[in-house]
Amino acid sequence: MIVYHPLFPPAPSRLGLYPVVDSVEWIARLLEAGARTIQLRIKDRQDSEAEQDIIAAIKLGRRYNARLYINDYWRLAIKHGAYGVHLGQQDLQTASLEAIRNAGLRLGISTHDDREIDVALATRPSYIALGHVFPTRTKQMPSAPQGLEQLATHIKRLGDYPTVAIGGISLERAPAVLATGVGSIAVVSAITQAMDWRAATKQLLELAGAGDE
Ligand SMILES: Cc1ncc(COP(=O)(O)OP(=O)(O)O)c(N)n1
Ligand SMILES: Cc1ncsc1CCOP(=O)(O)O
Ligand SMILES: [Mg+2]
Q1: Is 24 helix (H, G, I), strand (E, B) or coil?
Q2: pLDDT tens figures, 153-184
Q3: Which residues does the annotation say bind 4-amino-2-methyl-5-(diphosphooxymethyl)pyrimidine (predicted)?
């Protein structure tokens, strides 16, 4: 049985709906719509080009008392006092976990299989993300989707560890994903590509909640 004893500040066991978006505009809209766990995921920009957006997102996160995670840019997240950082397995090879920990930031880590879950558990992060559950067009994935059965097996293995499912989670698929016992659903296109993002967010919030305090 895995006991939740993180080396980083703890996350609530249920992070609820977790939109992952690429702009400050989306962060502002979604906080206003009621999301309380959210990620700024900017790709392929220099630190100097991403810094102002990271500062603005952190400020908004504080204003709404939200759990605002910064993807990848861990140095800027530390510099500007973000709530948390999300890192993938590749990122773990270059990031200073000690610096993130010393700065008091939460840490979320991506995983795709049992071996990566072993690696994540060894770092004792605040939460563990599991993906991708279904095919996704948002990010090129080197592995196959794990599907609901594998996700459920991982959730069982992780006991009371806070977990997040990601990858191809649509409004229609969300109930089955949540039925595995996962504490959170991270979504990109289910919100940003929806015909009506407000309606989609409202329905996803009704299904997953905004997260525990
Ligand atoms: C909640 C959540 N889970 C997984 C990811 C993917 O992170 P990573 O593997 O580092 O890939 P990039 O997002 O950096 O392309 C995530 N961002 N958030
Ligand atoms: C960033 C990321 N990491 C694993 S899948 C994914 C993209 C998820 O996007 P969508 O919700 O549109 O499938
Ligand atoms: Mg990354």
Answers
A1: helix
A2: 999 999 999 999 999 999 999 999 999 999 99
A3: 39-43, 71, 110, 139
Helix (H) or strand (E) holding 19: strand 16-21
200 C-alpha to ligand 3 centroid (Å)? 26
Residues with C-beta less than 6 Å from any ligand 1 atom? 18, 20, 39, 41, 71-72, 86-88, 91, 108, 110, 129, 131, 139, 164, 166, 186
pTM for the whole thing? 0.98
C-beta of residue 162 within 8 angstroms of C-beta of residue 184? yes
Which atom of ligand 2 is found nearest the CA of 189? 12
Give tens-digit pLDDT for 17-31. Answer: 999 999 999 999 999
- Ligand 1 atom with least separation from CA of 88: 10
Dist. CA 133 → ligand 3 center (Å): 17
